[in-house]
Amino acid sequence: DSGVTQTPKHLITATGQRVTLRCSPRSGDLSVYWYQQSLDQGLQFLIQYYNGEERAKGNILERFSAQQFPDLHSELNLSSLELGDSALYFCASSGTFAETQYFGPGTRLLVL
Amino acid sequence: AQSVTQPDIHITVSEGASLELRCNYSYGATPYLFWYVQSPGQGLQLLLKYFSGDTLVQGIKGFEAEFKRSQSSFNLRKPSVHWSDAAEYFCAVGGWTDKLIFGTGTRLQVFP
Hints:
The complex is a heterodimer of chains A (about 110) and B (about 110).
Chain A: E1 5-7, E2 10-13, E3 19-24, E4 31-38, E5 42-50, E6 53-57, E7 64-68, E8 74-78, E9 87-94, E10 102-103, E11 107-111
Parallel strand pairs in A: 2-11
Antiparallel strand pairs in A: 1-3, 3-8, 4-5, 4-9, 5-6, 7-8, 9-10, 9-11
Chain B: E1 3-5, E2 10-14, E3 19-21, E4 24-26, E5 32-38, E6 44-50, E7 56-58, E8 64-68, E9 73-78, E10 87-94, E11 101-102, E12 106-111
């Protein structure tokens, strides 16, 4: 158990819908990262937050957004969902810059 | 460009045999290197990491990896594989931006 929790574990929804994925980092970790794992793209970095502020952006679609709250949990919002958004979404956390990232169990999203 | 290459998509070994999983990276700055393991339906578990110092690093579950700067490689090894090692293994590189760049993964199958 990495100490990073993600909810829900599974999510099934329809095209055009909006979903919210939640992540709670390890106790004391200030950085939260979101990654997407899909069969065609592999593991791709989406976005990073550090102590409530966005720090880095990767291959994140405009339909996707994220935020980190004062209690340091983070949410990834996916809207206008398409079939191709079906993937495993991971959250990871770390304490400070350049430290090890510890991954949560992921949320498996299926868009029908 | 920053990238990680894992040339072996699928490796099959017999239980008790030795294992080496290859990883080559391209990174403009001093790399921080990681190996993660993903069992079916599970998240990513950190096996080991290299930041600096001794180029041979020990990890969990009897794994080790050697950093070779001249070859831009960070190969993962285990002297004797157990059936429970069957999983997918990901090499990753990171740096100042902190995002991780992952390879495409190597699926390890272990025969009794």
